[in-house]
């Protein structure tokens, strides 16, 4: 097995990925698969932090578009991410991977509050840390939470797991003529409005010179390949 190119990573997993082939909800087989991919990387000695979305259960933006108060809708979305985090934690621990869920909103009975120094200590002890509830603030996406947490824990790279194998000029599922980028800059992505992450997240990564790799999580072994520094998906950097 190749050696890891990174000591500490931030893995961003969208809630939609956890739904598997379903239109919503949690797919137990998908959660088990993701846990096995994360466990493989953790076994290499890589310090793994995860930010998880909640779009498979509830999406605040969509709810607010139908008339719900945006702040209330975003708070519900944060709770959805906590549910996903607990599901992933359970699956990881069934594989013998020590895991901690840290949340940006108070949920003392089920998760620790996010405290930067404690999160870093967990990582140093070899525990996978799952960050739930985004930033704890409405109007900020889990992409922004991923960028923010990556900066706070000094992760070397943000790895965004999606359903497609990189960044394209358009959605390849809708436009067969879409062209994939192997590498591009944050400024190019922002200027061309490419769907890497939201603009706030990309600006934060760009300002702090933190690279991002976008890859297809459904391809078995690709997470390990990214961690080993192999060319997988699309690399976005300064």
Q: Compute the separation of the termini in Å.
A: 30 Å
Biggest sheet details: 9 strands, mixed
Shape assignment: globular
CATH level-4 homologous superfamily: Acetylglutamate kinase-like
Q: From N to C, what is the helix and strand string?
A: EHHEHHEEHEHEEEEHHEHE
Question: Would you kindly provide a written description of the structure presented here, covering whatever features stand out?
Answer:
With 238 residues, this protein is an alpha/beta fold. It has a single domain (8-237), classed as Acetylglutamate kinase-like (Carbamate kinase, 3-Layer(aba) Sandwich), CATH 3.40.1160. The chain is 38% helix and 19% strand. It contains 9 helices and 11 strands. The strands form 2 sheets. It has a 9-stranded mixed β-sheet with strand order 4-3-5-2-1-6-10-11-9, with helices on both faces. Strands 7-8 form a two-stranded antiparallel sheet. Helix 2 packs across helix 4 (70-93) and helix 6 (142-152) runs parallel beside helix 8 (199-207). The longest helix has 24 residues, at 70-93.
Q: Nutshell version of this structure?
A:
With 238 residues, this protein is α/β, with parallel strands linked by helices. It is 38% helix and 19% strand. Helix 2 crosses helix 4 and helix 6 runs parallel beside helix 8.
Give the secondary structure arrangement, pairings included.
Layout: E1 8-13, H1 15-18, H2 28-42, E2 47-52, H3 60-65, H4 70-93, E3 99-103, E4 112-113, H5 116-124, E5 128-132, H6 142-152, E6 157-162, E7 167-168, E8 180-181, E9 183-185, H7 186-191, H8 199-207, E10 212-216, H9 222-227, E11 234-237
Parallel strand pairs: 1-2, 1-6, 2-5, 3-4, 3-5, 6-10, 9-11
Antiparallel strand pairs: 7-8, 10-11
Helix pairs in contact: 2-4, 6-8
């Amino acid at each position: 097995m190749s050696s890891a190119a990174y000591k500490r990573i931030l893995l961003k997993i969208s809630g939609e990925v956890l739904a598997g082939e379903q239109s919503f909800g949690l797919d137990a087989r998908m959660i088990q698969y993701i846990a096995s991919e994360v466990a493989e990387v953790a076994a290499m000695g890589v310090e793994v932090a995860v930010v998880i979305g909640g779009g498979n259960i509830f999406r605040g933006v969509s709810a607010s578009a139908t008339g719900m108060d945006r702040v209330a809708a975003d708070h519900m979305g944060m709770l959805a991410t906590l549910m996903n985090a607990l599901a992933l934690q359970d699956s990881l621990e069934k594989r013998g991977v020590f895991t901690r869920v840290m949340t940006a909103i108070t949920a003392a009975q089920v998760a620790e509050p996010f405290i930067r120094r404690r999160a870093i200590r967990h990582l140093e002890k070899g525990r996978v840390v799952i960050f739930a509830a985004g930033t704890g603030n409405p109007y900020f996406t889990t992409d922004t939470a991923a960028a923010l947490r990556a900066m706070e824990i000094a992760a070397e790279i943000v790895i965004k797991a999606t359903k497609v194998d990189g960044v394209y000029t358009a959605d390849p599922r809708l436009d067969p003529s879409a062209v994939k980028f192997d590498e591009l800059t944050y400024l190019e992505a922002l200027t061309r409005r490419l769907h890497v992450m939201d603009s706030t997240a990309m600006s934060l990564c760009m300002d702090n010179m933190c690279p991002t790799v976008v890859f297809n999580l459904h391809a078995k072994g690709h997470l390990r390949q990214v961690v080993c520094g192999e060319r997988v998906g699309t690399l976005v950097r300064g």
